[in-house]
Amino acid sequence: MFLLPGSRSVCVYVIDVDDPSRNTPLGCRTVTTQMALPLASWDETRVQMPHTTISGWAFDPDRPGEAVQVHVYLDTGTAALWTGDLRPDVHAAHPAAGDSAGWSLTAYLESGLHRACVWSSTRTTRGGTPHWAAGTSRWG
Length: 140
Description:
Helix content: under 10%
Largest sheet: 4 strands, antiparallel
CATH superfamily of the largest domain: Immunoglobulins
Shape: elongated
Distance between the termini: 47 Å
Number of helices: 1
Strand content: over 45%
Strand order of the largest sheet: 6-5-8-9
Order of helices and strands: EEEEEEHEEE
CATH topology of the largest domain: Immunoglobulin-like
CATH class of the largest domain: Mainly Beta
């Protein structure tokens, strides 16, 4: 069950499959939920012309061990990818990240000035709004 942040009333019933009018209420409680922002890093930009590789890691503490989508805006192009690269260093520092919180993208680029931005959205994001920007870089 997924709950948006805030206070919610949660009720539990024993369901009578033969006669739904005879369900037995076990009680209700108020629960308060919060969403934690994803944690992320853009660790490296490695240029070995004509290829450039950018890499980092991301995870959503609200969904431990699940993949996070990463969007890389490189010059005028866009790439969407998922975390899944092994990153035992991230797992050691943030156990909720799991061991596959890494991401990387290799692109062919002509020599010259280039600009990259990295964003991520998670399943807790509504309407595709990014939760974090790992950063912007120019090189060339």
